[in-house]
Specification:
It is a single chain. This protein is mostly helical. It folds into two domains: 50 residues; 36 residues, no CATH class. It contains five helices and no strands. Helix 2 runs antiparallel to helix 3. It is flat, with a radius of gyration of 24 Å. The relative contact order is 0.05. Keywords: Membrane, Transmembrane, Transmembrane helix. This is LysE type translocator. It comes from Paractinoplanes atraurantiacus.
């Protein structure tokens, strides 16, 4: 049992400190082209991850359900114009892009 645990810990530590593909790509760009290509490579990787995360979040139906359940808590329940104002604000926000 102890040998298996130590082996697992050693492999886990090795995998934790091993750089990933993104790090290898930035290092390759830095070695081949210098600081500027490495900066643009790192920026592209970050923007790609941000885009992927945003699309995953926006296309997830659970996020929409979460907003529909949480949003009414922060809006005043005055009359029907509140819902109309929220729909108008959503349309304005959606069309402004």
């Amino acid at each position: 049992m102890t040998t298996a645990l130590l082996s697992f810990a050693a492999v886990g530590a090795l995998l934790t400190i091993t750089p990933g593909l993104d790090t290898a790509l930035v290092l390759r760009s830095a070695l081949n082209g210098g600081r500027r290509p490495a900066f643009f490579t790192a920026t592209g990787i970050c923007l790609g991850a941000l885009t992927w995360g945003a699309l995953t979040n926006l296309l997830n139906p659970r996020v929409g359900a979460f907003y529909l359940t949480v949003l009414p808590q922060f809006t005043p329940a005055v009359d029907a114009t509140t819902g109309t104002a929220l729909i108008g604000f959503g349309l304005k926000l959606g069309l402004s892009r």
